[in-house]
Amino acid sequence: MKFEICEGVAAYVVGTIISVLYLMMACDSFIQARKIKNKDKTVVIFRILASVSAMLIVPSEMLVYGSLQGNLLPELSLSAAVALFFQDERCAGQMRTPSVALSVMLILISAGLSLLRFAFGPDAQWLVEFSDWTPAALALSTIVHCAFKVKYLVMDFRPLFRNISVTACVSDHLAYLYTLGFMSLMLLSMVSFLLNGIWSSLLALICLSVIIMVHALACMRSARRRLSVFFPDFEDRFREKTRMTLSADEDRQKADEGYRTTYERLNALFEEEKPFLNGNLTIGDIAKSLYTNKLYISKSISLCSGRNFCQYVNYHRVRYSIELFRADPHLKVSELAERSGFHSAASYNMAFRLFMNESPSEWCRRNRFMSDE
């Protein structure tokens, strides 16, 4: 207890206002929970407990000491940290166990300090010393919570690549910003313990106001399931654009599935019937065989293989020529070209270089030498 934020009548006025604010937060969480009717009550319960424990801290300071002490800052921050831990409904997933464990610890510390003050009065020096350790408990719990968040993100990062989790990812980023701002505020509040006179009280009141605001925003975000409390119109536009984008992505995905199906049918045709051996093969011939149109065939090949129709046909011809050579290493390049469906050795040479990065004569000479060994 390094200094007094305010004392006398001012302490009772400020303390009453703070207590009423926390009571309003608890009531708001309860009312919003009844409206949404969420089956999982864990988040709601801890939001209410955080507000109630903070509400008890203030009268314990006022009635026992007759003033608001400097340690009110880290003690109220304990409850604000619980609200931050449960500002996202998805904490009911992997983060349920660490969030619950850390929150129980912080609420017990906060409520315990209040009850012990009422029980032992202002002369309990050991209680003052115990209160001085609340910043350490707060910092440790915040670090542990962030560590678990990083751990679960590393263990399963697949949700980051799912379009359906766009809003959830934005919500996570906002949660990180709230936590980062909260930790920065805690560092700033420590400065008030180093100042003297009115400056320490003024800085403490500013930090106290921001702590209460962070607590309220975290509770309101969670209770209303919104990204932003102050800009509902912006959020509605964001969600609408997200839905439109996801709808367009789903349409593209369905179209891509159709192209992949056509490409699989095309591969099956080339493997079974080997139409590429016909030197005069056209894309129209393939379209007739698959009962589709030329544009769909061309698009399927482009999307699934990155080649055009001629490259796709020549790729299969080159593969077939390699099979012929391995069956009979004494075949000449011109014979391989003719039997594979190429019109000339020159076109065969160009296609072979494109896919094998060497001329057919070099490849045949090297592989013939290896087969002789």
Alpha carbon gap, first and last residue: 90 Å
- Helix/strand structural class: mainly alpha
| Rg, Å, rounded | 35 Å
Strand order of the largest sheet: 1-2
**Overall number of structural domains:** 3
Q: In this structure, how is the largest beta sheet organized?
A: 2 strands, antiparallel
Series of H and E elements: EHHEHHHHHHHHHHHHH
Count of alpha/pi helices: 15
**What is the CATH domain class of the largest domain?**
Mainly Alpha
Give me the CATH fold name of the largest domain: Rhopdopsin 7-helix transmembrane proteins
On the 0-100 scale, what is the average pLDDT?
78
Number of strands: 2
Give the low-pLDDT segments: 246-251
Please describe what this structure looks like:
The protein has 15 helices and 2 strands. The chain has helices at 8-36, 42-65, 72-85, 96-120, 125-131, 134-155, 166-191, 198-224, 232-272, 283-290, 294-305, 309-327, 333-340, 345-356, 360-372; strands spanning 4-7, 67-69. α1 packs parallel to α8. The model is unreliable at 246-251 (pLDDT under 50).
Keywords:
373 residues; mainly alpha; Rhopdopsin 7-helix transmembrane proteins; Arc Repressor Mutant, subunit A; two-stranded antiparallel sheet; 2 strands
Reconstruct the topology from this structure.
Blueprint: E1 4-7, H1 8-36, H2 42-65, E2 67-69, H3 72-85, H4 96-120, H5 125-131, H6 134-155, H7 166-191, H8 198-224, H9 232-272, H10 283-290, H11 294-305, H12 309-327, H13 333-340, H14 345-356, H15 360-372
Antiparallel strand pairs: 1-2
